[in-house]
Every structure is written in structure tokens, then in C-alpha cells.
Amino acid sequence: MKKIDFDCVALTQALVQCPSVTPKDEGALQIIENHLTDIGFKCSRLPFSEEGYEDVDNLFSTIGKTGKHLAFAGHTDVVPVGNKDSWKYPPFSATIIDGILYGRGSEDMKGNIACFISATNTFIKKYSPDFGGQLSFLITGDEEKEAVNGTVKMMAWTKKNDIIFNHCIVGEPTSNKMIGDKIKIGRRGSINFFITVKGIQGHTANSHLAENPTHHLINMLQNIIAKPLDDGNDNFLPSSIQIPTFDIGNPAANVIPEVAKATINIRFNNIHSGESLTKWLQGHIDKTFCNVSKATCTFTTDHTGESFLTKPVELINLVSNAIKEVTGKNSNPELSTDGGTSDARFIKDYCEVLELGITNKTLHQINECVSLSDLKDLHDIYLRILEKYFNKN
């Protein structure tokens, strides 16, 4: 059997070389399981299924039976590579050039997983498997797409099995200019509205005999984006309304279409909720169509998460101090809630959670990459967090 290498760079390479485009695994979970089993973790595979979605495998690994319980959460699935010819190096080669490791998933978020496993190995070798607490890994293969058969079901499984966490760190790439200068203590919520307006098809020369749904939809969307939802607050940026799609599907210039469709995506702060925004949209529909008799407007909703905020308490203070000790910086890291959604939205209902990882520069981009020095710095920060969390100061 090949000797297991716990070096954070080598492990990042091994994980990146698994082409685990969501929801495929391609061996990534097995690499993690082999490493954690080697240092004494008990590992459980958690495959989940749901009608209409791809089956997904997940991994829960734990060590220790009593004391404070810290979890690390991450995902091994990655987004598609796009045009392979645009990459400097093959996207799953994990090529290292001039101190930079290139590859899809290196930043988001296999490098972060590798650093925490490497730090855990260093910690356990130094303090023994009986370190006076509990440490677990929640690793999913379903984060980048629907996130239906991943962390949300893993957390339900832990509750059903009476597994209780005190705190959790999610290894998303959060840092800004240097490792540890920014951590996430919350996220904005996200909701999609898929709108369909149905009118009456007709000849453009006989508009009095038809009803153009496009005009009504444009009018409503103009009203929706005319005024910001809010100005944000001390912890959150202003909510963002975006119209990513507008579709008519009409190939003829002399035909009034029957149907017009659009999508609205809203990234919202804690001033709003999915329920309040649904009512807000219905209000716009009612106002636009109150005097329209020949057109109707319907919509469906995809609500992927509410906004949430973790107040600066035990874990945030501990992590902030660990970062300062490792980096030598006197200032506290920025406490942020920006960016998209993450699996922290599922974990927040079970324990205090924050996100800390590599610098956020190239995730989802062509030529996604991480610097080797950043990986080593993140390993040191994660190690110091473990030492402080389990009182090995």
C-alpha cells in the first residue's frame, strides 16, 4: 500500500487530481478517508438519495469520545472546468510552477480540506489521539449544485445519531489579501423567482387583438429594480436584485409572443426573509396586473437559504486570536458576511459556525490556483486553532 503523505501541498495535489465535478466523486472521499483512518478516525460513508436528484456520497469521520466537540466541514465536488484549452495546464493535473499549484478545486476548496487534515495529523502526532476532546470531519460531495444530498442531510443524520457539536469551521476560501485577514461569520440568503407571463399571441399589425406579455413583464421588472431593497446594515451589504435571464423564444419579428419569462435572483440580508420577499414579489405582480384582463403572471420559487449571522462569541474570538498569533498581526481579522451561499447555512441550526480558508482570488475561474506558501500558512493557523480549542496552549 502506498505510504500516506500528510504534507498539505501533496494532499492538495492528490485531491485536485480527482476530477470530482459535481456530483461525481472520482476517488476524492477515499483519499480523505484513508488519511483520517490512518491517524485513528472512525469513518462512515453516508450516501444519500432523493427523487429527481443525483445520488451523492458523503463522509463523516470522528475521533474522541468526550469533551468539547469541534467539527470541520468541507466539500470535494467542484464546478466544471469550462474550456480546457483556456487553461495554462490541464485543470486536474495539479501542476506546480513557481510556487503556485494550478487546478480546479485547489482554492474551492480542496486546498482548505488538505490543510485541515494536515494540521490534524500534526496535532494528533504531537498530543496523541487522546487529546481531551472530540474532532470530526463533515465532507460532502454535493455543495456546488443543488446541495440536496449533502451537508443538510449529514447534519440531520448526526442529530438522529445523537452527535452534538459545540462549534464548526467551514473551510471555504475567505481570506482577502493574506491568509486569515478575513473570516465569514454569516451569509446573505438567496432566492430565485422564475416568472412566467402569458398573454395572447397575434400579428404585430393587429395588436388590438392580442396581448403582449413582454410589455407587462418589462414594466414589472423596471419597477422591481427601480428602488433598492435596502441600504444594508452594520453586518451586511445591501441586498442585491439581479435579473439573470429574460426569455421570449420568438423567432418572428411580426408575431406578438404568447409567453415571456424572466428569472430574478436576490441575495438578501437579515432585513428580509424568503417569505417576506415572496410577498414583496406578489405585491409587484398584483400592482402590475390589477387592470390587465388578458394576461396572467405566475411564478415558482427556488429558495436556497436564509441569511444568518453568528455573533462574535467563543469560536470567533478563539480563531481571531489564533490568526493573530500565527501571522503576527495585531489587528483582528475582518468579520464578513459577503459572497454567495455556503453549507454554513445548514450547520448554523446545530452549532456556532464560521468560515475560514485560503485567499479568495480564483475560485470557479480558468486557471484556479493557490500558492504553496498560503497552504502552509493556513496549515499553521488551523493547527494553532486546534491547540487553543483543546487547551494545548
Summarize, please.
This protein has helices at 8-16, 28-38, 106-127, 151-160, 213-225, 274-289, 314-327, 344-347, 372-389; strands spanning 42-45, 58-63, 69-75, 96-97, 100-102, 134-140, 167-170, 182-184, 186-187, 189-198, 202-203, 240-247, 255-256, 259-268, 296-305, 308-309, 334-336, 352-355, 369-371. With 393 residues, it is α+β, with helices and mostly antiparallel strands.
Q: Can you characterise this structure?
A:
- This protein is an alpha+beta fold.
- 30% of the residues lie in helices and 23% in strands.
- It contains 9 helices and 19 strands.
- It has helices at 8-16, 28-38, 106-127, 151-160, 213-225, 274-289, 314-327, 344-347, 372-389, and strands at residues 42-45, 58-63, 69-75, 96-97, 100-102, 134-140, 167-170, 182-184, 186-187, 189-198, 202-203, 240-247, 255-256, 259-268, 296-305, 308-309, 334-336, 352-355, 369-371.
- A 6-stranded mixed sheet has the order 1-2-6-3-7-18, with helices on one face. The chain has a 4-stranded antiparallel sheet with strand order 12-14-10-15, with helices on one face. Strands 4-5-19 form a 3-stranded antiparallel sheet.
- Strand 4 and strand 5 (100-102) form a beta hairpin.
- Helix 1 packs across helix 3 and helix 5 (213-225) crosses helix 6.
